[in-house]
Amino acid sequence: MWFPSLNSEYLRDALQPIISELLDSADAQESGADDLPDPSLLSGAFDRLAELLVRAETGQTATTTHDDAVLQPHTITELGEYTFVLLNDLNRWMTRLKLPFDEASLMELTIVVALWVSRNGGEL
Q1: Are 46 and 19 in contact, with CB atoms under 8 Å apart?
Q2: What is the dihedral of CA 25, 26, 29, 33, to 10 degrees?
Q3: E strand or H helix at 84, and its extent?
Q4: Cα–Cα–Cα angle for 9, 94, 54, nearest 5°?
Q5: Over the chain, what is the mean pLDDT?
Q6: pTM of the complete model
Q7: What single DSSP character describes residue 102?
Q8: What is the CA radius of gyration of the chain?
């Protein structure tokens, strides 16, 4: 089975409809969840993750803008773990609010993240 490569555009395209639905529904229902981040914070975290992917795609890190800069394996591992946590929180919100969503899309995105981590020298 072929999976697309993880990049900032793919991440945004895959998550945009799901996060939009979450934000709309969470505002309407005011369903607080002590164990989950606020949906707007979760959305912002995905935006920052996409920005980090842009940096990785262009060879820039948070501390340098040199063209030869690459993310270190431990940083790749941390980004992967962070992404898995965010995807899990998104899934839990969608389930909590009983929103219809394509669970297969989130699972595919999880696999794509795992492949990205592995291909870039990180650990799963």
Answers
A1: yes
A2: 140
A3: helix 73-96
A4: 20
A5: 83
A6: 0.82
A7: -
A8: 15
